[in-house]
Amino acid sequence: MKIHRPLYIIVIISMLIPLTESHLAQAQTTSGTDWMSICNTVSAALVQPCSAYVDQDGTFTQEGERAFGCIRNGVLMAGGAIALGVPTPIILGGLRVLAGQTGCDNIVNWNLVSLGDLKSLQDQLPH
Predict the structure, then answer these.
(1) Which end of the chain is more exposed for a tag (fewer CB within 10 A), N or C?
(2) pTM here?
């Protein structure tokens, strides 16, 4: 029985969603991470200004916590889809659909995002 690639993506997504909380806790306690600088790097693709996501003391706002989890999971899912050879339009379209269904809408302006942007963001996030 042949399993189609979209099924692989669904499996990957179901495995990654629980990672949001643990990554967020790690992100908030990661010393030396300049969240405002990272936010400013990708601010053109964000719906709100960075001040909505990062406080003056460099910690996430409540909206920033939500955005970080959503973006991190999106980057991970896109990376998995790229590794499986999924075409770019399908990856970005899938992320758009998932954003609305997972409470991650109104964070990213999808008209301004490319896979290169996601790769750049992935390189900046702490591992």
Answers:
(1) N
(2) 0.69
